[in-house]
Amino acid sequence: MALIRDLSTDEKMAPAVGVLFSAVNENIGRLKSIVSGSSQEMLDDKGEHGNKNSIAQLIYHLINVDIRWVYRIRQEELPSEVEEAFSPMTDENGHLPEVKGVPLSVLLQQYDEVLEVLKKTAEQLTEEDLLKTVPYEGGFATIRWGIWHMSDHNRYHQAHIQALIKEFRKRKG
To answer: How far apart (Å, rounded) are the C-alpha atoms in residues 70 and 122?
Structure first.
């Protein structure tokens, strides 16, 4: 029998909310699979010329963006302790902040914590809530689009991470 792929929904969530959450959850699981077994050297590598974002930076960026989306969806200000824990989105030059020496297990634990906060938030959302708008980049986005964007953004950076892994393995043999 052929394997059937689907987005599983959580019975505690409204149907459309559950599908959107499932997409985020599945993509985080896929990211974990991609980086599973990565050495610290690979996580911190910034490419042959040292001018690329590292895998660790990209994972941290995803965590940082997603936690901000969770609070945006909740229509709450980002708590100061969360703001401090996840530092600014970019450094003074507009680049992703440096992340070096942070073990993969720590990064993935942080991502799991963000996913758990999203799950608890999603369990409270109704189908109608998905149509509410929240501020985003000088305009507005629906909550539905925001959750979809979390999933899409993760997949986007998975492509970068896979390219970094491939380049690292080619250089390091």
So the answer is: 9
Query: Domains in the chain and their CATH numbers?
Result: 38-172 (1.20.120.450)
Beta-carbon neighbour count of residue 78 at 10 Å? 15
Q: How many CB atoms lie within 10 A of CB 97?
A: 15
Give the tens place of pLDDT for each residue, 26-43: 999 999 999 999 999 999
Q: Tell me the three state secondary structure of residue 34.
A: helix
- Given a contact cutoff of 8 angstroms between Cβ atoms, the answer to whether 10 and 22 are in contact is yes
pLDDT in tens, 41-90: 999 999 999 999 999 999 999 999 999 999 999 999 999 999 888 878 88
Q: Which of 96, 108, 105, 104 is nearest to 46 (CA)?
A: 96
What is the DSSP-derived secondary structure letter of residue 99? -
Handedness of CA 158, 162, 167, 171 (dihedral sign): positive
Does this model's pTM top 0.85? My answer is: yes
User: Measured between alpha carbons, how far is 120 from 37 in angstroms, rounded to an integer?
Assistant: 29
Burial 31-70 (b: 16+ CB within 10 A, else e): beeebeebeeebbbbbeeeeebbbbbbbbbbbbbbbbbbb
Q: Cα angle vertex 156, ends 151, 160, to 5°?
A: 140
